[in-house]
Amino acid sequence: MKTSSSPFREVSLHVNGEIKPVLIKPSDTLLYILRVKLGLTGSKPGCLNGDCGACTVNVDGMAMKSCLMFAIEAPGKRIITIEGLKGTPIQHAFIKEFAFQCGYCTSGFIMNCYSLVENYPDANDELITEMLESNICRCTGYQEIENAVKSVLSSNKNLEK
Amino acid sequence: MLSFDFDYHAPSTLKEAVSIYQILERQGKQPLFYGGGTEVLTLGRLNLVYSDALIDIKNIPECRVQMLTDKHLVLGAALTLTALTERNLFPLLSKTARGVADHTARNKITLGGNICGEIFYREAVLPFLLTDSYAVIAGNEIRTVSFDEVFNQFLQLGKGEFLVQLITNRNDLRLPQFHIKRRKQWNIGYPLVTVASIKKAGTVRIAISGLCPFPFRSKKLEEALNNNDISIESRINEAIQHVPSPILHDVEGSDEYRIFVLKNTLQDVLESYQGGES
């Protein structure tokens, strides 16, 4: 069993397709490391308690609230933040459907919706509702967000035909 | 952000995990086993949980098992609730797990973490209280114990022990069942009461969460509910007498209101079985 007197550990995180060496403490959340150590401020601090979803990122293909994950758990996993999405259909759909108002929750919602359309191409209304309940929009722009998700799912299905 | 630092250990075997715990304890530390870590973060922020050495059990293969054998379902404690619900090998567990937190959080919350947590609700406990289930616990030795016996308000773990697996009789997985989570309003937030039920050998079994500061199953409450000689209303009134105390009385709902909701929910359960629904 290795022990160290220093609380810091040097690890490599795989973020947005790049390997990033970073010095972390085991008690650091992934959100803190992304924002403060790596400068990726698109993931937003909201409740810091796993309730609001503003900090949602993608870890190994799954939506993940980065305030609920210790950064020390992240080495070896592929992390995508909002900065790592470049012109994906869900981003275009958010613009087209005007699925944002103040915008604070938007990056978290997009990351959750990105996971939704990637992992559940046949998602029904029940699953869409269930997944969107993971995030909170205090401007209450939920209908437009739902429309954005459905438009991507629908266009993906049309592409398959 | 937590107000305390901790060492992090990620053993790859049960033996290593137990050994690390013992070494850390001899060093005067307060080690804690964990799977998902969500409660360490949320309750740690409030200084309601503290540890200076976390032992992450996610890398232990036995803790990640999700396997159906001829006779049993074996579920590792480090499986996420999402992993369980997506394979849906235990439908009642899937239903109760889908009521925990939200979809994204369930990508992190583990079965063992929910069962061994501090939070009142711990709804993943309910299906195991109702069925013929066992807990596999690692410590100085590996022991397999009846879940009904080892869970009394909390999972009764000895110092240095942790939950490895839950084993459930395969015959119990597809029994007629009922699950309902009643909240004060909307579909999100903490429950006023959650009731899970199965019907086995003609007898209704009930396990309840959200009513008391712990999930429970009461044999006396069930006896009253299964007394077919009296009306459903009388059965429920008798059953309520066997609810343990204390009953939660907080911002989600008063104790009186929770009992009111429980009565209606029990009526729904009994009528559902009478109607042949499952």
From TrEMBL, chain A:
Q: Which UniProt keywords apply?
A: 2Fe-2S, Iron, Iron-sulfur, Metal-binding, Oxidoreductase
- Judging by the UniProt lineage, the source's domain of life is Bacteria
Q: Which residues form the 2Fe-2S ferredoxin-type domain?
A: 9-85
For molecular function, the Gene Ontology terms on record are: 2 iron, 2 sulfur cluster binding; metal ion binding; oxidoreductase activity
* Pfam families reported in the protein's UniProt record: Fer2, Fer2_2
InterPro entries in alphabetical order: 2Fe-2S-bd, 2Fe-2S-bd_dom_sf, 2Fe-2S_ferredoxin-like_sf, 2Fe-2S_ferredoxin-type, 2Fe2S_fd_BS, Beta-grasp_dom_sf, Diverse_Oxidoreductases
* Protein name per the record: (2Fe-2S)-binding protein
What organism, scientifically named, is this protein from? Answer: Exobacillus caeni
UniProtKB/TrEMBL annotation, chain B:
Which residues are in the FAD-binding PCMH-type domain? 1-173
Q: Does the keyword Protein transport apply?
A: no
Keyword Zinc included in the entry's annotation: no
Record's keyword terms, sorted: FAD, Flavoprotein, Oxidoreductase
Identify this protein by name.
Answer: Xanthine dehydrogenase
Pfam families reported for this sequence:
FAD_binding_5
Gene3D superfamilies from the entry? 3.30.465.10, CO dehydrogenase flavoprotein, C-terminal domain, Uridine Diphospho-n-acetylenolpyruvylglucosamine Reductase, domain 2
InterPro entries recorded: CO_DH_flav_C, CO_DH_flav_C_dom_sf, Diverse_Substr_Oxidored, FAD-bd_PCMH, FAD-bd_PCMH-like_sf, FAD-bd_PCMH_sub1, FAD-bd_PCMH_sub2, Mopterin_DH_FAD-bd
Q: Name one GO molecular function term.
A: FAD binding
Q: Which PROSITE patterns does this one have? A: FAD_PCMH
